[in-house]
Design brief:
Helix 3 packs across helix 4 and helix 3 packs parallel to helix 5. Strand 1 and strand 2 form a beta hairpin. This protein has one domain: P-loop containing nucleotide triphosphate hydrolases (Rossmann fold). Helix content is 37%, strand content 24%. It has 212 residues and is an alpha/beta fold. The protein is globular and about 45 Å long. It contains seven helices and nine strands; from the N terminus they run βββαββαβαααβαβαβ. The chain has a five-stranded parallel sheet, with helices on both faces. A four-stranded antiparallel sheet has the order 2-1-4-5, covered by helices on one side.
Length: 212
């Protein structure tokens, strides 16, 4: 079952040359796909387009059969909150909030009760070995812990589409193994998992490779 599809998407930043031109690809339920290619080829930009955080110059992004790329900002934000999980390359945690509040962010945006969402969040954080940091600020955790916290945030709503930008890039082998297993577990639950990565060990764990 196709959950996410790029249809002839072209994108450039302003008057710069196109980063992507007429790019097509479909992503299915239950698979982990690696997006690979040299630095600067557009891997991160592609994830932002697939995750509805950027609009293509031309073409469209289809989410679960629904044309989505050119919806209003509010409707795209709703789709991101209900369908997607996103792990940013630099974790992108809010330094002014606690670790737990960072993980809860999208659940509270969707209107879930804090109590129910906190229970799930702490379970995930325990699984990833960061529950003891729940009341800390992001500036008080290591880079590896920050990335696992970001993964917990991305998984909290059981996303049908999970996008991850270099999710193992700054991790030691043990932490990277935890992240890779979490990505595979999400796919086994029927999600489409798409990772932009330079990590050959992660690429080997993927079902399919798309090179830019």
């Amino acid at each position: 079952m196709i959950l996410l599809q790029a249809r002839s998407i072209t994108f450039s930043y302003g008057r710069t040359p196109d980063i992507l031109t007429g790019w097509d690809q479909a992503f299915e339920s239950g698979e982990v796909v690696a997006i690979t290619g040299p630095s600067g080829c557009g891997k991160s930009t592609l994830l932002y387009l697939l995750g509805l955080m950027l609009k293509p110059t031309e073409g469209n992004v289809v989410v679960d059969g629904f044309d989505a790329a050119h919806l209003s900002d509010s409707r795209r934000a709703h789709l991101r909150a209900t369908m997607f999980g996103f792990v940013f390359q630099d974790a992108a945690l809010d330094m002014g909030r606690t670790v737990l509040d960072n993980v809860l962010e999208t659940a509270l945006y969707r209107g879930e009760s804090r109590r129910d969402a906190s229970f799930r969040a702490l379970e995930l954080m325990e699984q990833f070995g960061v529950a003891m940091r729940a009341t800390h600020r992001p500036g008080e955790v290591s880079g590896g812990q920050a990335q696992r916290i970001a993964l917990a945030r991305a998984l909290l709503n059981h996303p049908r589409i999970l996008l991850a930008d270099e999710p193992t890039g700054n991790l030691d082998p043990v932490s990277a193994g935890i992240v890779v297993q979490a990505l595979r577990d999400r796919a086994s639950c029927g999600a489409a998992v798409i990772v932009a990565t330079h990590d050959p060990a992660l690429v080997e764990q993927c079902d399919r490779i798309v090179r830019l």
